[in-house]
């Protein structure tokens, strides 16, 4: 186990280094000028040049990237151009909101997706199966801004069940979490349905039925445990995706998470913030996948970590 963890962590370190290099290079070649953004439109060329020198933006790419990696190894994510504060502090202040939304959204995805997937697998080939799969396809194909506005208009404006936006109470997280849950549940449902259909053809399922086990017991006790492994892997991926921020959903509902922070940083060409959010997202994806791999043997002891 320890050897496996060390190997995965070594791969993760190389992967994160590659992510920082690619992201830094893309930001370097952007036509936007952070110094001009900071100085303002009315600033003189001399003022802009002075700001560019102070920030080190006049240095060659390899020197800028080398300085960034050196600071990163020391635990320093840099300093925000726009907010004039440490990137680590800014990102950390947004993490609680992101973690709350991530946990609630994944819970919604699992509840909705697993129920739909089990139902569709049990109704394989019937009209109800076709209808459920069609609805799941519509769900995964719907843009986030369309779903967000529809949820906001229906449950906040028409029915007045939930607030339009905000943060701090349970009622504030319901709509953004349900929006993300409904959009993502289709993937879980389709994945679980395919996996369960494959499992339901196995010999041990026929044996359980021959012994008189009910359909519900066969599905929940015998089939689900072996069919749920692909879903566990998807949860690991979702952890990384939500940690990078659901930009559209957070913006529509005014949720103060990392996604909203990233959008603001992009508008202001705040490179340190963009790099910080990207790095946090990459770390979350790596850790989410590692966690999914570690959980898999607990679900199915036949799986060996190598």
Question: In words, what does this structure look like?
Answer:
It is a single chain. The chain contains 14 helices and no strands. It is mainly α and 306 residues long. The model has no long low-confidence stretch (mean pLDDT 80).
Query: Low-confidence runs (pLDDT<50, min 5 residues)?
Result: none
Radius of gyration: 24 Å
Helix and strand composition category: mainly alpha
Nearest-integer average pLDDT:
80
Task: Give the helix tally.
Answer: 14
Bulk shape: globular
Secondary-structure element string: HHHHHHHHHHHHHH
Please give the largest β-sheet. Answer: none
Q: How many strands?
A: 0
What share of the residues does DSSP label as strand, in percent? Answer: under 5%
Distance between the termini: 8 Å
Give a quick precis of the structure.
With 306 residues, this protein is mainly alpha-helical. The chain contains 14 helices and no strands. Helices cover 77% and strands 0% of the residues.
Q: Layout of SSEs?
A:
Elements: H1 2-28, H2 34-39, H3 45-55, H4 61-73, H5 87-122, H6 127-141, H7 144-158, H8 170-199, H9 203-210, H10 215-227, H11 229-243, H12 247-253, H13 258-268, H14 271-299
Helix pairs in contact: 1-14, 5-6, 5-8, 5-11, 5-14, 6-8, 7-8, 7-12, 8-10, 9-10, 11-14, 12-13, 13-14
List keywords for this structure.
306 residues, 14 helices, globular
């Amino acid at each position: 186990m320890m050897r496996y963890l060390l190997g995965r962590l070594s791969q993760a370190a190389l992967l994160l280094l590659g992510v920082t290099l690619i992201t830094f290079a893309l930001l370097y070649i952007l036509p936007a000028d952070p110094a001009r953004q900071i100085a303002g439109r009315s600033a003189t060329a001399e003022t802009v040049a002075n700001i560019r020198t102070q920030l080190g933006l006049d240095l060659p790419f390899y020197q800028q990237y080398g300085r960034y990696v050196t600071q990163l190894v020391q635990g320093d994510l840099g300093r925000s151009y726009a907010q004039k504060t440490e990137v680590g502090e800014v990102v950390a202040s947004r993490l609680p909101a992101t973690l709350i939304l991530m946990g609630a959204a994944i819970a919604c995805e699992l509840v909705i997706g697993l129920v739909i997937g089990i139902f569709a697998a049990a109704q394989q080939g019937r009209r109800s199966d076709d209808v459920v799969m069609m609805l799941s396809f519509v769900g995964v194909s719907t843009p986030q801004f369309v779903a967000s506005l529809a949820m906001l208009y229906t449950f906040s404006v028409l029915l007045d069940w939930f607030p339009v936006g905000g943060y701090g109470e349970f009622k504030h997280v319901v709509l953004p979490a349900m929006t993300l849950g409904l959009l993502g549940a289709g993937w879980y449902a389709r994945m679980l349905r395919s996996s369960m259909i494959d499992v339901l053809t196995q010999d041990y399922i026929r044996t359980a039925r021959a012994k008189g086990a009910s359909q519900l017991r066969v599905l929940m006790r015998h089939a689900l445990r072996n069919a749920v492994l692909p879903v566990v892997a998807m949860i690991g991926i979702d952890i990384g995706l939500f940690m990078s921020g659901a930009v559209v959903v957070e913006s529509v509902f005014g949720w103060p998470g990392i996604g909203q922070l990233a959008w603001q940083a992009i508008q202001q060409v705040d490179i340190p913030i963009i790099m910080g959010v990207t790095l946090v997202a990459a770390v979350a994806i790596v850790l989410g996948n590692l966690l999914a791999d570690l959980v898999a043997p607990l679900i199915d002891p036949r799986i060996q970590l190598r």
